Amino acid sequence: MKEISTPSQPVLAPPLEQDVSGSVLATYSYKDPLYVFALVLDSFVCIAAVHLCLLLDLFLGLLLKLVAAGASSNV
């Protein structure tokens, strides 16, 4: 059997990126499956929100036309 060797020195994380104010910037990797899942989910949520706004605009526009047509026929 082969023995698993462990490094004698701990593996250090890369230094964190900072912006000009010194705030630490988040670092993401496309190799991280959770990040990819969040990115895809966010895309679907944004697309759904845009479609919902378009449908709402369409229905409110049609409702306004119906109300205007009903009001003009009663005059």
From TrEMBL:
Query: Per the UniProt record, which residue ranges are transmembrane?
Result: 34-56
| Keyword Transmembrane helix assigned | yes
Q: Which domain of life does the UniProt lineage start with?
A: Eukaryota
Which keywords belong to this entry?
Membrane, Transmembrane, Transmembrane helix
Q: What is this protein called?
A: Atg8e
Source organism phylogeny: Eukaryota, Viridiplantae, Streptophyta, Embryophyta, Tracheophyta
